[in-house]
Amino acid sequence: MPTERTSAALAPQALRSLVASLLVAEGVPLDVAEQVAGPLVAADMGGKASHGVMLLPMYLARVRAGSVSTAAFAAVAHDGKATVVLDAQNVFGQVSAKQASTLAVERARRYGLAMVTVRNAFHLGEAGYWARQMADAGCVGIVMANTRPLMPAPGGAQRVVGNNPMAIAMPHTGEIPVELDMAMSASAMGKIRLAQGAGEAIPDGWATDAEGTPTRDAGKAIAGMLLPAAGPKGFGLAFMIDLLCGGLSDGAVGDEVQPLYGADASPYNSAQAFIAIDASQFGLQRPLDQRATAQATRVRSSKAAAGIERLYSPGEIAWQASQDHQDACPVSHDVARQLTELARAAHVAIPPAWQSL
After folding, report:
1. How many CB atoms lie within 10 A of CB 320?
2. What is the pLDDT of residues 183-219, one digit of tens each?
3. Phi/psi at 41 (nearest 5 deg)?
4. Helix (H, G, I), strand (E, B) or coil at 23
């Protein structure tokens, strides 16, 4: 897996402030800018740099090109009580995701479970962030999204489906969250872009070139195709997520979703789904939050194979990274340099630790 140079670590609040200031300099209202900055920095703190502040230059370019709206709300296109469809109208994905996840929890408390789908949506960052918000509110949280086609069918040599992420977070009683957050590809495209920026090769099994030949060259992978996780299983899940998100929002499916990079003036047009389940309305004798935490504890305390120091429950590694980075959030040198260049151009204050970049 590509390594990142993290000598440009910065206090999380300073990084959030820098990100928000750069957005405000492009005309984004402060409250919207802060909604975007928080989840991006949280991804970096959790060791998920592919969904963190490395995305900001692309976000800013899209604001300038007009494909991302700086509005503070998505429109309600349909309200079926336990089912709601939002038309994001190209607002920041973090804005519509916050609205959708909050609404899903509110309706789940009323009806037991609720699903909010979103069409005409922009990139929402880390899907797990929004699933955790629902879990922290006491509900099972499920988040899915579709992307532009990036993966071929098994044996194919043409992009036909995105690497469509899915996250599931359980309510829990312990400090450590119980969470699954994964894309349906062997690796996220953001990790390949990080490898390209660092001049590093990618691992075998991540991607092919444009002709379908496996490659370790990050540049050829970006121009080529991602490979699905677990072969046909990952492909099949991605295919179904595409239809759940786009089909139940009356939004985009397949190649109706546009590229995230290289087409700044074209709306991304993603479709997303947010499901909240209020376990307290299932008549349970054994509360789900207690059982989720107990099962996660069982995983961590189970017998490790020879040579393995310890085992982790789903979501624990990212949580531990976040705990470790409370004072200093790691940012690759390349990304830090990009942000400082943007700050100089926008006359935004650069954090003292980065002024020499």
Report:
1. 14
2. 999 988 888 988 998 899 999 999 999 988 999 999 9
3. -65, -35
4. helix
